[in-house]
Design goal:
Two copies of one chain form a homodimer. Chain A is of the alpha/beta class. The C terminus of chain A is likely disordered. Chain A has ten helices and 14 strands.
């Protein structure tokens, strides 16, 4: 199973690249139809992640242009299409490193002198969710490589335990000092130990800065506000969906009850109980300190300017 | 394993009752020493739960008085001691019913006409945690029997899943309309559906109303405040510890990492990750709407009056 919004887009496109075998598609029109059909399916499979839709739109435009261009052969069309996917992958890794560095600087700008920072993160946004390095975990990696990271706390991230399984794995692997907490312990942690900042990823950011991310993110934002803790969202610019004005327009996927009632084959909930299992929630912009992108860190209200000037508008 | 502060006291005392076999203890002094030693051990095993200490203090006073009274034989001493434990058990059930009714009235006093209520609860405070009926779950049972309960939401209560296992079991058993949510979903739930009130139990309430309860309670109180949702603590008067002025004096038990890293024998956290596993947290009085006891519902600031006048002081 592939998860993490950027990884969904990358792996979706790469799987398409594998399927477009040279020996099967020798007709440009059939190639275009195949690409368009597969990409639209991938977009519909994960409605909350905007990256997939943006990547799909870009690739569909490309195959349509190549299909119309009579100077391009079917073979050349395939080559250019695969080249575009490869470029996307490379850009994703470079963007993650830029996000990591921008985020580290933003967090450190709130600290005096050479003081160390303590970061809390939710879900997984690392090399297991992106093409590499990570978004929120990229910020953590950058802080660690600068020698300014004292400790990371990661939440379990129920019900699918991406924090306990994946983020914890990456932190142990990278020898970053880290502690796992249950989702219910964030407030107690913020009272017991000073946390410098929360840094999380995003599945989709609306024009006003409202952010859809893994269920539980909104609750952490509420308790961060209550405890006066900085709350950053780290996401590539492609996660910003300028086609929607606010989070009210974000469709939240609901997932099967079994994901909550069982851990592997082990039942953990009483038989017969109903479960509510939304995969994401929306954090309102007013709870977000800043949105860390590869183009810099923006306050939520600054995003709309990018739409108006169009200078950094990803669809322009 | 026995859990739930009132149940710990009741079962602790009942287990002692079983151990005090007539054929073994025929000497009053040995009986007194045995009772005192066992009760002090039970108190030290669960430092957060104040009920055990109060029950122990009462029983130790009793055996000391009986030991000194030369008119009481060893046989009579045992009989009076066992009778005192039985009375405690009966009082616990009666108190729970009184808590349930007082809490239902308090919640309904905020509702217009015959409108139905939606309640969120955390951990387990039902027949599986008390002698019977329950504290917070007693309030829910009373609302249900009044026909005013639309729906109950119960949290999983990680890491030991008392909500998913025990509360969900009791709600399914009693055919009370209920839905399980992850601890991380409470804020999203409060935004998605109107919740009338949160009702939770308590392991220990300080004189100023600060309340120690299962880890995660404090976080629910923070998000209830943020969403303007009523937040009630339901607990017998014996859970109020007038010997401590505030929650700062409450010792929080930390539990083994394995409780977080494993579900039964199934590992759910990456090997090598540290875990922080406090069993309880303290909810400050300013986040609590009211404390529901068998003697009525009090605002946190009203508790101190009981100490000053001594009218309802449980140790007087």
């Amino acid at each position: 199973m592939v998860r993490g919004a950027p990884a969904i887009a990358i792996v979706g496109c790469l799987s398409l690249a594998v399927e477009i075998q040279p020996e099967v598609f020798t007709d440009k029109k059939i190639l275009r139809q195949e690409v368009e059909g597969k990409l639209n399916y991938l977009v519909s499979a994960r409605p909350t992640a905007v990256n997939m839709k943006l990547a799909a739109d870009e690739l569909i435009s490309l195959v349509n242009a190549l299909d119309k261009d009579e100077l391009v052969s079917a073979e050349q069309m395939k080559k250019k299409f695969l080249g575009a996917i490869e470029t996307m992958l490379e850009k994703d890794i470079a963007d993650n490193r830029a996000i990591g560095d921008a985020g580290a600087n933003a967090v450190l700008s709130h600290c005096s002198g050479d003081s160390m920072v303590r970061i809390l993160t939710h879900c997984n946004t690392g090399t297991l969710a992106t093409a590499g390095y990570g978004t929120a975990l990229g910020v953590i990696r950058s802080l660690h490589s600068l020698g300014r990271l004292e400790h990371v706390y990661c939440t379990e991230t129920r019900p699918y335990n991406q924090g306990a399984r994946l983020t914890a794995y990456e932190l142990v692997h990278d020898k970053i000092p880290a502690t796992l907490v249950c989702d219910s312990m964030v407030s107690a942690l913020m009272r017991a130990r000073s946390i410098t900042a929360v840094v999380v990823g995003a599945d989709r950011v609306a024009t006003n800065g409202d952010t859809a991310n893994k269920i539980g993110t909104y609750q952490i934002a509420v308790v961060a506000k209550h405890h006066g803790v900085l709350f950053y969202v780290a996401a590539p610019f492609t996660s910003i969906d300028f086609s929607i004005p606010s989070g009210e327009h974000i469709v939240i996927e609901e997932r099967p009850e079994r994901e909550m009632s069982h851990v592997a084959d082990h039942r953990i909930a009483a038989p017969g109980i109903n479960c509510w299992n939304p995969a994401f929630d929306v954090t309102p912009a007013n709870l977000i300190t800043g949105i860390i992108t590869e183009k810099g860190v923006f306050s939520p209200s600054e995003l709309a300017k990018h739409l108006k000037t169009g200078s950094d508008y990803p669809h322009s």
